[in-house]
Amino acid sequence: MTIITDLFSSRKKSSKTVLALNTIAENPRKTVIYSFLESVIIESSSKVDEMLRLEYLIKKNKGLFVLIKNPTKDQRLDLIEYLTTCSTEDFLDAIEIFLKIKIENINSYVSRGYTPYPKSILESCLKKRNIFVSEFNDIMKLNSIIYRIKDSRIIAIDSELQYKQLIEPTFALLYEERFKLANEEFVRALENYRKGDNDGAIREANNAFESTIKVVTGRDGDATQLLQECKRQGIISPEYEKIGTHLDKLFQTLPAMRNTKSDAHGQGKEKRVIPPRDALLALNLAATFISYIGSHKKN
User: Fold this and answer.
1) Domain with CATH 1.20.120 in the chain
2) Which H or E element spans position 228?
3) Which residues of 84-104 are buried (b: 16+ CB within 10 A; e: fewer)?
4) How far apart, in whole angstroms, are the C-alpha atoms of residue 240 and residue 213?
5) Is 0.70 topped by the overall pTM?
6) What is the C-alpha separation between 293 and 121, in angstroms, rounded?
7) Sign of the Cα pseudo-torsion (164, 166, 169, 172, in order)
8) What is the CATH number of domain 182-294?
9) Could you tell me where the beta strands, DSSP code E, fall in the chain?
10) What is the pLDDT of residues 43-76, one digit of tens each?
């Protein structure tokens, strides 16, 4: 694994505004570490040691020769001490590196059909990864901490209610492999909004919406053509034809925001300042439209 250029801390530093960190206090942090220890795989017969791999990659990506001030002879204990005492930002980076380790060999097996490790270890890797992700998110929620793991990345949420009722169902739908591109675009939209890139949030929200329509309809085209295809295929309920142009205008809201609010087509001499509420509106529209269009079941 080479240097990881898109860790949580790197995304935060590249933001246009400073992201206020929600500190992970001692007790929830230790609970996460317990979950981590339960999910690591150490298999000497197959030379798999995820703790040592994580310890090495943290040092490599952080430019460190040792993880703690007074290292012991046990690298695993040093890793636990580091996870216990490091900053919240470094802790979240370590979590992301760990998740990348988890899927590294799985992806190798899926894409090339072979791996240096037994398939049973890969299956255990995937299972334990999923359990860790679920437990991490539960720990964060129980302690009212804003971080969640989504697709091996840490995202920050603003409202638990909004996340539960709108964002989470959208992610549940986009989890299907056919929506992989739309899923990636929606994750980027959330990240852009969180770091203050309102232009990028609107642009990626619309991209996710249009990618979802393309998958469901099996057609390409611009927003207008895609929405017409949705109506032709009955994806948009025929009953809504009673509201006619009003419905068309509603679904056109997101593409229109992309064209007039974001920097998708350049901004000319003067840069437009997009208020956060416009970006939040785009995210909510995208989530609602994606859930509605994406949940269509063909006969």
Assistant:
1) 182-294
2) helix 223-232
3) eebebbbbbbbbbbbbbbbbe
4) 18
5) no
6) 38
7) negative
8) 1.20.120
9) 42-43, 48-49, 147-150, 153-156
10) 665 566 889 999 999 999 999 999 999 999 999 9
